[in-house]
Design brief:
Length: 140
């Protein structure tokens, strides 16, 4: 099942009255159904933020845009966490030394020369280190 089909299945399950739109009560029931908690006021706020056409409901396109956006935000947060593990020194860059150290922790012993070559492949500004944007590019 591709992701759009999965989104559609979830959307239809949440859309209790089958009108093709999600109301605050439907959103609240959905969150309660997965073990979360959401007051009706919070659900109204969420719907208000997602509602781009002003009808007071969340339509299919708005739902997909929201789900896709959450996924991207999670990916960026995961990458930031991974980046912090590799950069270790708190300098905001992955150096050959910090890369070597992290690879060793992961059980993959590499020489400093190997680490320099690995960094050079993705070092877009040729400064000898990887910043977060270069790391993100490398991981994509």
């Amino acid at each position: 099942m591709d992701k759009i089909a999965l989104y559609e299945k979830v959307f239809k399950q949440v859309d209790g009255d089958g009108d093709g739109k999600l109301s605050p009560p439907e959103l609240q029931r959905c969150i309660l159904g997965v073990g979360g908690s959401l007051t009706i006021e919070e659900a109204e706020t969420v719907v208000e933020k997602l509602d781009s056409d002003g009808d007071g409901l969340v339509g299919w396109d708005e739902f997909v845009e929201f789900v896709e956006g959450v996924g991207e935000e999670e990916k960026v947060n995961d990458l930031k966490e991974a980046f912090r593990m590799y950069e270790m020194d708190g300098c905001g860059f992955i150096t050959t030394k910090s890369l070597k150290r992290m690879l060793s922790k992961l059980g993959e012993s590499r020489s400093i020369d190997d680490c320099k070559k690995m960094i050079a492949k993705f070092d877009l500004d040729s400064d000898g280190v990887l910043n977060f944007d270069e790391f993100k590019f490398m991981m994509s």
